[in-house]
Amino acid sequence: MSIISSLISKSLNLSVRNVESTIKLLQEGATIPFISRYRKEVTGGLDEVAVENIKTLNENYKELQKRKEFIVATITEQDKLTAELGEKIENCWDITELEDIYLPYRPKRQTRAEMARKKGLEDLATWLMKQQHGLPTDKAKAFLTDEVETTEDALKGASDIVAEWVNEDAGARQDVRRIYERDAEITSKVIKGKEEEGEKYSDYFDFSSLLSRCPSHRLLAIRRGESEGFLRVSISPDDEKCTNRLIQRFVVNSSEAADYVEAAVKDGYKRLMKPSMETEFATLSKEKADEAAIAVFAENMRQLLLAPPLGQKRVLAIDPGFRSGCKVVCLDEQGNLLHNETIYPHPPRNEFSKAGNKIVKLVSTYKVDAISIGNGTASRETEHFITKLRFETDVKVFVVSENGASVYSASKIAREEFPDYDVTVRGAVSIGRRLCDPLAELVKIDPKAIGVGQYQHDVDQGKLQKSLDQTVENCVNLVGVNLNTASKHLLVYVSGLGESLAQNIVDYRTEHGAFESRKQLMKVPRLGAKAFEQCAGFLRIPNAKNLLDNSAVHPESYHVVEKIAKDLNSTVKELINDKSLKDKIDVKMYTSETIGVETLNDILQELEKPGRDPRSKVETFEFDSAVKTINDLSEGMVLPGIVTNITNFGCFVDVGIKENGLVHISELANRFVSNPTEVVSLHQYVKVKVMSVDIDRKRVQLSMKAVEE
Q: What pLDDT was estimated at residue 65?
């Protein structure tokens, strides 16, 4: 058992065996989706969140180990490494404590204490720290030199050394750190003269809160106000409490030497330790706020990616606009562009009849099943225009989020897909494809450009990108991918693939035609046994000869299904189609060293509905027709709405006007809610009550309390 596995086990409250098994799989190149889906017996059934946590902690501890090795090497070069110190470093697995241990040995710039040492005053500082009886001024006389002309100079230099010792004492820092953890307050003040320019931060012009209780969104807002030059921010506990605690630690009697030590303690705290602690806690609190914001963003992204798809339908998509008109495209079942043009049903041209006739004709000509309208400018007006038209068939109308569509339309991916069309056509195509399969279309857009989170530009961008990439990968593999229709951009996120193999699959498909079996993947250049193991279970082939190729059953388990069918005197097809056959299966009969009950239960569940999409079905939605602008709102109105964003402090709801209203976390339910995702999900249809309308600030406060669904 390694020490790292043991530490992870304690941190996550998991068995050491499961942790070690998971780490081994990760080291062998297994992906998180593959481990959580197909190696449940090995990991004890850990889900992707647990596997990801193990991976993250393992990487963090390995980085810590490298840091320890560097510190040992540095102290060894100084010839100051003792057996006791080496053991202390070896047994330390907390980065803060490790840096405290290293602090006295860290190469320093020219500090006051360092200058005093060079003048030969360290022995005087040692004498002061012992706080023996005797006059410090008499003792200091022995240290007078050309550089140290008076006893006052000697004692001042010695006191500087004592102050540095106080600051570098690991126990003292831990004492003060505990006070900071418990009592530190974060305070923000407006910078004089910046009141008008920084008005949006007015809530923080004179703000104070216990740091430990300051919500992540507030902390990030304060830090943004600080970085933009509007706020002055400080973090501090009760300074007197800190200095008193340090005095208790270092001052041992009432001698004159003790008086010098007490003065040095106060100086060491104020000049050295306090700024260091404020920086440390500013960093730590920012990291925690980042983690909370990133978690919200990742969850919103997950919900967006798993939004209900309409499926393979013929769609007419509209990117609405007023002066520039509405860009219209028609797409076939595979999302291929069949037709595009622009209509002008709105002011200033008002070609209502002409535009209406054109839409009706396009719906008939291209046998359109559904109409997808972007939710940007002129969305409500366009929806109203479309719903007034009469079609020969039942054509459903949907309003979809167009967040990130403009980013996609100007991207390299869009240019590769539609080199002969401009950004307006590409944007409309994206709006249409999002209705049919949100996941397949959204993977083409940088997750950060979709804008479903809070303070996304203020958090650690590396950590945000890593979290979002993993979220996309988990969602893609949860749903599964059609091997014969998936774009390269979707295949990139399939377990075990990547940009190179995804491109090779597309190239092979182009050259040889549709894949007929999963085994055929082995013929793709550079796609070896390991990559096949990782990706095969997540790739689907509808209408394949082997029905299991269109399921989440992994090829490594096909023989089990075949044996079950044989034992029941049936074929695999009969086993899938006949529920009574599945009811006769005793899974314990088919367990082995590599396949356990959990995997067998997963297989049986998959045989119920092979290739089943785990996403729910898309539903139509209508806003209140009487509400089109913020001026149409009044307190007490109950309106239908769509949740467009979720934050730690509540959720934003689109009620059919330009401005989204806020349902504060306290207004989500008639009970305490610690996390908004307990109550709402992204794109959920809800009913809300208007609590207040601030037309000047364009703010709408909503409530979901006591609103009948």
A: 96
Cα end-to-end span (Å), the chain = 54
Q: Could you tell me whether strands 396-400 and 481-482 are parallel, antiparallel, or unpaired per DSSP bridges? A: unpaired
Q: What is the pLDDT of residue 1?
A: 61
Distances in Å between the alpha carbon of 299 and those of 165, 437, 443, 646, 683?
A: 46, 19, 15, 9, 13
Instruction: With CA atoms as reference, report the closest residue to 333 among 437, 188, 185.
Output: 437
**pLDDT-based confidence at residue 261 (cuts at 50, 70, 90):** very high
CB of 530 closer than 8 Å to CB of 480: no
d(CA 524, CA 508): 6
Q: What angle do CA 660, 666, 667 make, to 5 degrees?
A: 55
Alpha-helical regions (H) of 306-437: 352-365, 379-387, 405-409, 412-417, 423-436
- Phi and psi at residue 217, to the nearest 5°: -65, -35
Contact (CB, 8 A) for 250 and 172? yes
Query: Do you know the residue count of the chain?
Result: 709
The distance from CA 326 to its chain's CA centroid, rounded to whole angstroms, is 35
Q: CB of 431 within 8 A of CB of 373?
A: yes
Where does residue 63 rank: exposed (0-12), middle (13-18), buried (19+ CB within 10 A)? Answer: exposed
- Residue 448 pLDDT > 80, yes or no? no
Of 574 and 224, which is predicted with more confidence? 224
For 604-629, the pLDDT digits (tens) are 888 888 777 788 877 777 888 888 88
Tracing tokens 């709402």 back to the chain, one arrives at 680
The first and second tokens of residue 303, run together, are: 């919900």
User: Rounded to an integer, what distance in angstroms lies between the CA atom of residue 630 and that of residue 29?
Assistant: 54
Rounded mean pLDDT of the chain?
A: 91
d(CA 246, CA 319): 66
Angle of helix 122-130 relative to helix 151-168, nearest 10 degrees?
70
Q: Determine the pLDDT at residue 27.
A: 95
In this predicted model, what pLDDT tens digit does every residue of 43-77 receive, in sequence order? Answer: 999 999 999 999 999 999 999 999 999 999 999 99
What are the two backbone dihedrals, phi and then psi, of residue 97, each rounded to the nearest 5 degrees?
-65, -40
Q: What is the pTM of this model?
A: 0.83
- Residue 709 scores a pLDDT above 60: no
pLDDT at 402: 84
Upstream peptide bond of 33 is cis (omega within 30 degrees of 0): no
698: pLDDT strictly greater than 80: yes
What would the mean pLDDT of 469-491 be, rounded to a whole number? 92
Q: Is 616 buried (19+), middle (13-18) or exposed (0-12) by CB count in 10 A? A: exposed
Please tell me the distance from the alpha carbon of residue 233 to that of residue 646, in angstroms, as a whole number: 27
How deeply is 1 buried, as exposed, middle or buried, from its count of CB atoms within 10 A (0-12, 13-18, 19+)?
exposed
Contact 199, 222 (CB under 8 A): no
One-letter identity of residue 69: E
Token pair in block for residue 309:
């798809």
| Percentages (nearest 5) of helix, strand, coil residues in the chain | 55, 10, 35
C-alpha to C-alpha distance for 299 and 33, rounded to whole angstroms: 17
Is the CB of residue 428 less than 8 Å from the CB of residue 305? no
Supply φ then ψ for residue 35, to 5 degrees: -60, -45
Q: Which strand ranges, in their side-by-side order, compose the sheet holding 337-343?
A: 337-343, 326-331, 315-319, 370-374, 396-400
Kindly give, in sequence order, each residue whose CB lies less than 8 Å from that of residue 178, ignoring residues fewer than 6 positions away.
none
Instruction: State residue 581's pLDDT score.
Output: 83
Q: Looking at residue 148, what DSSP letter applies?
A: -
Give dist(CA 418, CA 425) in Å, integer. 9
The amino acid that residue 382 corresponds to is T
